[in-house]
Design a protein that fits this description.
The protein has a single domain, classed as Phenylalanyl-tRNA Synthetase, Chain B, domain 1 (2-Layer Sandwich). It has two helices and three strands; from the N terminus they run βαββα.
C-alpha cells in the first residue's frame, strides 16, 4: 500500500518498551510507554498535519497484532516528522499522567 504523498507512522516507532531492532525509531528518552494510535492522531492534529487512521493495519514485524497505522501528509523528511510527533506525544502523555492525579 504505497501512498506517494503520505508517510506511514506506526505506534511501535514511539514505544519505550521496544528495541530499535523491534521497530522503535526514536531514542528511549523521547519514547513513551505503550503509545496508542489515537494519541498519535492527536499529536499529528496538534502539529497541523493532515492524517488518516487505519485501525486494521498490522506492523509487518508483529503481523498478528492489529496496532493500526497513521498516514501523515509529507511535509518534511520522515525522520523529522517522527521527531516532531514524538515531542508532541511526550507532552500528551505527560498531560494524561498529571491529569489522572488530580
Amino acid at each position: 500500500m504505497r501512498k506517494l504523498n503520505k508517510f506511514i507512522i506506526w505506534p511501535v516507532y514511539f514505544d519505550q518498551g521496544k528495541t530499535r531492532k523491534d521497530g522503535r525509531r526514536v531514542p528511549k528518552n523521547q519514547a513513551v510507554i505503550s503509545p496508542k494510535i489515537a494519541e498519535l492522531k492527536e499529536a499529528a492534529d496538534k502539529l497541523g498535519l493532515k492524517n488518516e487512521v487505519n485501525l486494521e493495519a498490522h506492523f509487518p514485524k508483529t503481523h498478528w497484532i492489529k496496532s493500526g497505522m497513521l498516514l501523515v501528509e509529507k511535509r518534511d523528511s520522515k525522520e523529522e516528522t517522527i521527531r516532531e510527533i514524538a515531542e508532541k506525544l511526550m507532552k500528551i502523555k505527560s498531560q494524561q499522567l498529571t491529569g489522572n492525579r488530580k
